[in-house]
Design brief:
single chain; 4-stranded antiparallel sheet; 1 helix
């Protein structure tokens, strides 16, 4: 890939998720094939009927010469009375370089 004019992802250090979230993340991601997600930032939580988690991840397709990208992974943990299981809500791409302009 030509780097001139293109955004190039830096090398990231994976983050440590809280133990319960790490276990839920691993449980959910074990069912995903064709791409690996590496947690980079434990970004946010939301109390709902259970709890939602937002984790910024590096996404790496399992292909020859993969192109890495950043995504926001959203997980939901059910209430303890409902079993406390985790499920994947969505994986949203993070667009890099969109709506960026030079200050005038």
């Amino acid at each position: 890939m030509n780097e001139v004019g293109n955004w190039v992802l830096e090398e990231f250090t994976p983050c440590e998720l809280p133990k319960e979230v790490a276990a839920g993340f691993a449980q959910v991601m074990n069912h995903i094939t064709g791409v690996n997600y590496t947690p980079l930032l434990y970004a946010a939580t939301q109390i709902v009927a259970g709890k939602n988690y937002m984790i910024i991840c590096e996404s790496t397709p399992v292909v020859l010469n993969p192109v890495r990208s950043l995504v926001a992974v959203y997980l939901h943990q059910a209430l303890p009375v409902e079993g406390g299981d985790f499920r994947l809500l969505s994986v949203e791409p993070i667009k890099i370089g969109v709506n960026c302009s030079t200050a005038k």
